[in-house]
Design a protein that fits this description.
With 315 residues, this protein is an alpha/beta fold. The protein has eleven helices and eight strands. The strands form two sheets. The protein has a four-stranded parallel sheet with strand order 2-1-3-4, with helices on both faces. The longest helix is centred in the middle third of the chain and has 25 residues. 47% of the residues are buried. The N terminus is likely disordered.
């Protein structure tokens, strides 16, 4: 994943842990409550924690609403929050500074969502068109697509793993965690059915997005995502890539270029204008803001489904 890496030096993280772990007043909002305190790395993780934990958990997100998760630089105060909390729920290799802080933290329960389902490689072309594989271990790790939450089936697998981790870490409320997880898994199953039936019969199976966030979703429902950029939402496409997209759009009957809420829509609108296409929002749900088409994960996914149906010509 070619995201901009803004790593916090290990020394700085270690120093922050030493200096601030006892400062409960600075991190009172995250830890030391009378509930099971969970620090989540960004919205999709926080949503899982809230849905599964219910009234028994107090959830704090390290990524503020409207903040691009890939660019998060964790602060000393947030590092201290990890120490004050009972558990951390994060997605390894999406936010390097979070990975470093979690690795240095002494928090007992560390839940890595990427270990709870299978990650794959996606690039500029997905949904049946395999990305190039690389034999170098470090490049292979970075090539894995982190956007698992956009596939209801994989997100459900993560939910089940989180539920089990909560049951183990907070056994007094295990029965409620188990019930809440089952309810969430059922809702995700229903959402999967809606996507499956809603996208089964369409005029085209190809859609264009600003960056390759929808590879798992495309693969799940037999679609092909063509991304202006790769996995990095703020990289610039080459002139050749733009020309290829315009030719592909005409050949495959593409009607719409999708952009998202947390990144500039300038490139998407320029390409759409040049190719005579429409634009619309397809939300990667990395955060909920006033611009989001819905107040939570399920509402935004419903809006995403409608947008895809309209763009693909669903029958």
């Amino acid at each position: 994943m070619n995201v901009r890496r803004r790593l916090i030096p290990m020394v700085a993280v270690s120093a922050a842990l030493t200096a601030l772990s006892a400062c409960s007043t600075d991190s009172a909002a995250a830890g030391n409550t009378d509930k099971f305190d969970v620090v989540a790395s960004f919205y999709p993780m926080a949503f899982l924690a809230e849905q599964i934990g219910g009234d028994h958990v107090h959830v704090t997100s390290l990524t503020e609403p409207g903040q691009e998760p890939h660019d998060l630089e964790i602060s000393a105060k947030q590092t201290a929050q990890l120490q004050e909390s009972d558990a951390v729920l994060y997605l390894k290799n999406l936010q390097p500074s979070v990975d470093d802080a979690v690795a240095q933290s002494e928090i007992k329960t560390k839940i890595d969502a990427s270990a709870l389902t299978e990650l794959e490689k996606h690039g500029n072309e997905v949904g049946g068109h395999a990305a190039e594989h690389d034999d170098h271990a470090n490049e292979e790790l970075e090539g894995l697509d982190p956007h698992i939450w956009l596939d209801p089936v994989r997100y459900s697998q993560v939910a089940e793993g989180v539920g089990k981790a909560f049951e183990k870490a907070d056994p007094d409320h295990a029965a409620d965690y188990k019930a809440n997880t089952a309810a969430l898994v059922k809702k995700l199953g229903d959402l999967n059915t809606k996507f499956k039936t809603g996208l089964a019969n369409t005029d085209t199976k190809v859609f264009i997005t600003t960056h390759a966030a929808f590879g798992y979703l495309a693969e799940r429902y037999g679609l092909t995502e063509e991304a202006i950029n790769g996995l990095d939402p703020e990289s610039e496409p080459s002139a050749e890539r733009v020309k290829d997209l315009e030719k592909m759009a005409k050949a495959d009957g593409v009607t719409t270029v999708f952009y998202e809420t947390l990144v500039s829509d300038k490139t998407a609108k320029t390409i759409a204008s040049d190719a005579g296409l429409k634009t619309d929002v397809l939300d990667p749900i990395e955060g909920i803001t006033a611009k989001s088409r819905g107040k939570d994960y399920f509402a935004v996914q419903e809006a995403n489904l409608k947008a895809l149906q309209a763009a693909l010509g669903a029958k």
